[in-house]
Design goal:
Rossmann fold, 406 residues, 16 helices, six-stranded mixed β-sheet
Length: 406
């Protein structure tokens, strides 16, 4: 398929380019010493990603340890509640081991770390799912693990903090700034700068300097590959639309990569939070502008001084002031439609899916569910596949404390 002069038959092979750019987005804007470490990671990744030993080991892990492939569920009662004939489906990444899509790239990154002879893996986490997944990978491969997490998120995500500690990870509390995801990334990156000779920074999304946006997308592409085949087997055709939430954007790129070359409408949903005022949302693609942070160029929310702006979302995994460079590229060319959904609709969707389908979604995923329901009402016919990127066990105490039981 040709779209906006891009040949999507060969898109995944051509993007990013050798310097890590998706058009003008991406790249690697980091100190020279750290750039050498990134080049080491790039060379190692390109070596082992073509290795039959690495590929077979990763496939074995996915099948025997992660429980892949995860299924697609037909959301019959949710579809009937809308009542206009649109059929809703969910790709069940909540059934992936550890409860979210994050383990897809964490096992790959940890396997890469072992190949490179590293002793420690370092990461940030917001909602805690990436932290739990990486702590799981570290335990599986026998690696040390430091997880940086903001004070606000530690309080909101207590169950995941406990899981990380039980798995043997060292959870490092980040107390500066807004004490959320952006500050956790800052702290993890600073730590990696001091330990890059013996450690690897396992970035939790399709963000950061090259090769991480590409590498995380590649590891997450299993979601889209599975989903496309499963949906066609279930229904005999492709979905009319697919929907995923977007913070940094790893779960979304995982799903999208399987459908970019198909006549399917693709929607990436950012958190509108409390409203459109700066500081009340984290919708960088909707309201941001081009800028560099955390070693890559993308679309970001800026304050009056051009620095990363404060952000907010009810979902700890989405409150990041930028998005992956590939999302910025797909947004600019119009292949993916990026839109927003606010806290209120998100929480309503959280309870609706739980009550009608017996599936408690992560708050992050609830943004996609809310938009999928909204889109179904607008479409009037057809089918929608929603990426249910994680389960909501981690969010229940916070939801009950803030919103009660509806």
């Amino acid at each position: 398929m040709i779209y906006n002069n891009i040949n999507f038959d060969t898109y995944l092979k051509n993007y990013p380019d050798k310097d890590g750019f998706f058009g003008k987005y991406g790249g690697s804007y980091i100190p020279a010493d750290l750039q050498k470490a990134m080049e080491e990671i790039t060379e190692a990744y390109f070596t082992i990603c073509k290795s039959s030993k690495f590929i077979s080991e990763l496939r074995r892990i996915r099948k025997e340890f992660q429980g892949r492939p995860t299924p697609i569920s037909y959301l019959e009662r949710l579809s009937n509640s809308i009542g206009n004939g649109v059929q809703l489906y969910a790709k069940r990444e909540d059934l992936n081991h550890t409860g979210a899509h994050k383990l897809n790239h964490c096992m790959g990154e940890a396997l890469l770390a072992k190949y490179m002879g590293k002793k420690k893996i370092i990461a940030e986490t917001g909602a805690g799912q990436h932290g739990v997944a990486l702590a799981t990978a570290a335990a599986y491969f026998g690696l040390e693990c430091d997880i940086y997490m903001g004070t606000v998120d530690i309080k909101k995500q207590a169950p995941n903090v406990a899981r990380m500690k039980i798995l043997g990870a060292n959870v490092v509390e980040v107390t500066h700034g807004l004490q959320t995801l952006k500050e956790a990334v800052d702290a993890a990156f600073d730590a990696y700068c001091k330990e890059y000779k013996t450690a690897i920074y396992c970035i939790g999304s399709v963000v950061g300097p090259h090769p991480f946006p590409m590498m995380v997308r590649d590891f997450q592409s299993v979601v889209g590959i599975e989903a496309r085949e499963q949906f066609c087997n279930m229904t005999g055709e492709l979905p009319d639309a697919i929907v995923a939430c977007v913070g940094g954007g790893s779960n979304a790129m995982g799903l999208f990569s399987g459908f970019l070359n198909d006549p399917v409408d693709i929607y990436g949903i950012e958190p509108l939070g409390r409203g459109t005022a700066l500081g009340d949302h984290a919708a960088s693609l909707k309201y941001g502008e081009e800028g560099i942070m955390h070693g890559f160029n993308s679309i970001m929310l800026k304050d009056e001084n051009g620095e990363p702006a404060p952000v907010y979302s009810v979902a700890s995994g989405l409150d990041y002031p930028s998005s992956g460079p590939e999302h910025a590229f797909l947004h600019e060319m119009g292949r993916v439609k990026y839109d927003v959904i606010g806290d209120d609709e998100t929480i309503d969707a959280f309870f609706t899916l739980s009550r009608l389908e017996g599936i408690i979604p992560a708050i992050e995923s609830s943004h996609a569910v809310a938009y999928g329901m909204k889109l179904a009402r607008e479409m009037g016919k057809g089918s929608i596949l929603i990426n249910l990127s994680g389960r909501g066990d981690k969010d229940m105490d916070y939801i009950i404390e803030k919103y009660g039981i509806r």
